[in-house]
Amino acid sequence: MFKKILIANRGEIACRVMKTAKKMGIKTVAVYSEADKDSMHVLMADEAVCIGPAASKESYLVIDKIIDACKATGAEAVHPGYGFLSENEEFSRRLEDNGVIFIGPKHYSVAAMGDKIASKKLAMEAKVNTIPGYNAEIVDSAQAVEIAKGIGYPVMIKASAGGGGKGLRVAFNDKEAFEGFEACRNEARNSFGDDRVFIEKFVEGPHHIEIQVIADSFGNTVYLLERECSIQRRHQKVLEEAPSPFIDDTIRKAMGEQAVALAKAVNYQSAGTVEFVVGSDKSFYFLEMNTRLQVEHPVTEMITGVDLVELMIRVAAGEPLPFRQEDIKPNGWAIECRINAEDPFRGFLPSVGRLVKYRPPETAEGQVRVDTGVFEGGEISMYYDSMIAKLICHGATRDQAVSRMRDALNAFVIRGIDSNIPFQAALMQNPRFLSGVFTTAFLAEEYPEGFVAADVVHDDPGLLAALAAFGRRRYIDRAVQVSGQMPGHQRKVGSEWVVQMEGKDYPVVVTPIPGGYSVTHGVDRYDLVSDWKFGELVFRGTCNGTPICLQLERIGLLYRVVHFGKQVKATVMTANAARMLALMPKKLPPDLSKFLLSPMPGLLREVSVTAGQQVSAGEKLAVIEAMKMENVLKAELDCKVKKVVAAPGESLSVDQVIIEFE
């Protein structure tokens, strides 16, 4: 077994690999960019080596620097994680040439299956069902349009070396094919150093199902069941589960055997994932093989009881698999929510900055797991992807897994940046998701206008008002206990209050009960009991005898309540104060309609218009790059440009003016 391994990655996955390595008694080496010098994976490692500036193409994507770090530290093997160089054939080959073991498949397998064009051709030769498409390299946008028209819209434009939703667009017409090809090629060049792009037919309304395989050097290959990955936004997975509520035993076996046959065809060794698109009639087509560990691997670990990272290390060290296919049996259900630094109410735009507060939910063996690479006080950088953590919950049934995920999301505290927790929490309440009947079109169909605050509806707003009243009354009861009050002049606390929340008044009556307060709103009564104190962000207690978990905090004169993704900021005052406040004039917000503002922090890559130019609705105005993704800003209305304020190459902050209109 290895004595020391280097993890050629960062963030959550680097920390994940280190945990298993340490469990196995293996010392770890971290590599890091200048932007990551204080990150968690650096602190966790036994040794750490700086490999360059913040930009990944100058650090994490530079093969020579990784090899030099191996030589300097004496690392015997390298685990690549996912992304970066994990599916780079040259990287695995050069490691082998330098006497360093690559904890992953051999370079020839990476070359055959890591390249989407090559892997599709190989799958066709192996008589695996494949989607119609054009599998050769495409020269330019004009050729891409002709190919797309020949296949028939809609088509999927994909980077050959892509992954994680980057370098991928769906085009429904010539214009989208033309623009999508350029965007995919640029993203692929920046993220993977490979700008080759191909096109295939887009199967509308499919399921995205993937099969986890693991193979050793002795010819043993096993599939570890499937993962349901159909909940996607912009072709990037946001939630995964295992097993799939759509797949039956017959299809599971057929897909698994086909995945194993494909792996054996290239003498595959290590963990890998074969992805399929599955139609409503349960016909399935090969999409690609990811020759690496997947982001969503924990759901497979939870239902099979195996440690995939440990298996990868043991296989790389020359050990055989410790089980056979017949030994793999599903145990319960697991769901993973990706917790990302993005604002779900602003089109999921990236959110960067300091994690002022970061309190993941408590973990429980076999029930709740948190894989993360950040800590309170750390910084979410604009240079890398937006993932903060992965929250994985397991249950004996799908319903139990969902219930545990709801509670865990309620207790997940993030302050300082925006996160997609409200969106994930809304999914956990969505009737269609709960039914298990959905496809990759789920998010587009459920949120056709995008995800907005109105989509997070709490079924009992009176409960939120009652909790705000609980917080206010506990504050008042603490305040009236201050010493030194003049006899006969102590404050008398009344029971009638008004909670103002989202433009509505909730008159409530608050009376003390043992351990808490009874709050009455109309005919509804909420007996709230909790030992919650100011400074605590998570409220745990009971409501009418039923356990409840949510977030409650005092912010100045406001009380923030967060429950099932719904967040409100409530003002709690006496009835008389509420009447006086109603007489105050309202302040109108400033008119910003004549400005194009940056919706996120990022790098301004392109300004597509000039002063004096007439612009039509839908026309491209600017391109901002953030977290390795290109974001195109388009005109919402016909307008005329008065002034271009920001220049290409400029680093933008949120709401910074880019263009002024007449």
SSE diagram, text form:
Layout: E1 4-7, H1 11-23, E2 27-32, H2 40-44, E3 47-50, H3 63-73, E4 77-79, H4 89-97, E5 101-102, H5 107-114, H6 116-125, E6 133-134, H7 141-151, E7 155-163, E8 166-171, H8 174-192, E9 197-201, E10 207-215, E11 221-233, E12 236-242, H9 249-265, E13 270-278, E14 284-290, H10 297-304, H11 308-316, E15 333-340, E16 342-343, E17 349-350, E18 353-354, E19 357-359, E20 368-372, E21 379-380, E22 387-395, H12 398-410, E23 413-415, H13 421-427, H14 431-435, H15 442-446, H16 461-479, E24 496-501, E25 504-513, E26 516-521, E27 524-530, E28 538-543, E29 546-555, E30 558-563, E31 566-574, H17 575-581, E32 595-597, E33 602-607, E34 614-615, E35 620-626, E36 629-634, E37 639-644, E38 651-652, E39 657-661
Parallel strand pairs: 1-2, 1-4, 2-3, 4-5
Antiparallel strand pairs: 6-9, 7-8, 7-9, 10-11, 10-13, 11-12, 12-15, 13-14, 15-22, 16-17, 18-21, 19-23, 20-22, 24-25, 24-31, 25-26, 26-27, 27-28, 28-29, 29-30, 30-31, 32-39, 33-35, 33-38, 34-37, 35-36, 37-39
Helix pairs in contact: 4-5, 5-6, 7-8, 12-13
